[in-house]
């Protein structure tokens, strides 16, 4: 069942968190209760798609590892059905190749590694809302994943890893 942190969804950007860990979702709701967002929560990809079918979502924050439909499939569906939604991935996936695969997915704005510092999460959500509303993105988010992948060919492995982490991994 979706949970709202506030009721005025007409004037506030909507952020939907999708994670199968309900305790984490409750913590996120408490953490962001004073932020200028409408917070929606879903414990599955199916529930997230149901919410998005009836409520416009500005920012979607998805865990990758979920039962039934995983975060990869959800991102693919959102890219087709809701291309205006800014997508973030928040996951404990430690595999660097998996992270790069997610970031290469052109509909993913940022990868947020769990656990995340609350201030960093708030900043990333604000940056995402800014991106969704057509505002100017902060300088550190202007480089696209495609551009960074092209840079990989011209940088040493250490330089690429550092640049990748600075631009896409929170």
Structure, explained:
- Residues 14-129 form the Response regulatory domain.
- InterPro entries: Bact_response_regulator, CheY-like_superfamily, Sig_transdc_resp-reg_receiver.
- The chain is an alpha/beta fold and 170 residues long.
- It has seven helices and five strands; from the N terminus they run E-H-E-H-E-H-E-H-E-H-H-H.
- Strands 2-1-3-4-5 form a five-stranded parallel β-sheet, with helices on both faces.
- Strand 4 (86-91), helix 4 and strand 5 (108-113) form a beta-alpha-beta unit.
- Mean pLDDT is 78; it is low at 3-9 and 136-155.
Write the layout of secondary structure elements.
Elements (H helix, E strand, L loop, with lengths): L13 E5 L3 H10 L6 E5 L2 H10 L4 E4 L8 H11 L4 E6 L4 H9 L3 E6 L4 H15 L12 H8 L4 H12 L2
Parallel strand pairs: 1-2, 1-3, 3-4, 4-5
Helix pairs in contact: 6-7
Question: Can you give me a brief rundown of this structure?
Answer:
The chain is α/β, with parallel strands linked by helices.
**CATH-derived topology:** Rossmann fold
Give the helices and strands as they follow along the chain. Answer: EHEHEHEHEHHH
Stretches where pLDDT falls below 50 for ≥5 residues?
A: 3-9, 136-155
- The separation of the N and C termini measures 29 Å
Keywords: Phosphoprotein
InterPro entries: Bact_response_regulator, CheY-like_superfamily, Sig_transdc_resp-reg_receiver
Protein name: Response regulator receiver protein
Organism: Desulfobulbus propionicus (strain ATCC 33891 / DSM 2032 / VKM B-1956 / 1pr3)
């Amino acid at each position: 069942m979706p949970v709202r942190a506030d009721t005025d969804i007409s004037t506030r950007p909507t952020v939907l968190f999708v994670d199968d860990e309900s305790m984490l979702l409750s913590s996120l709701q408490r953490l962001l209760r004073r932020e200028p967002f409408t917070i929606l929560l879903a414990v599955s990809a199916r529930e997230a798609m149901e919410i998005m079918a009836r409520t416009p979502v500005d920012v979607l924050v998805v865990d990758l590892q979920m039962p039934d439909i995983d975060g990869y499939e959800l991102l693919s569906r959102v890219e087709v059905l809701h291309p205006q939604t800014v997508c973030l991935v928040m996951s404990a996936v430690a595999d660097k190749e998996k992270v790069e695969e997610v970031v290469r997915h052109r509909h993913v704005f940022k990868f947020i590694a769990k656990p995340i510092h609350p201030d960093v999460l708030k900043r990333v959500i604000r940056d995402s809302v800014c991106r969704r509303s057509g505002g100017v993105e902060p300088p550190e988010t202007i480089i696209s994943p495609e551009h960074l992948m092209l840079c990989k060919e011209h940088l040493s492995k250490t330089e690429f890893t550092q640049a990748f982490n600075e631009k896409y991994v929170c």
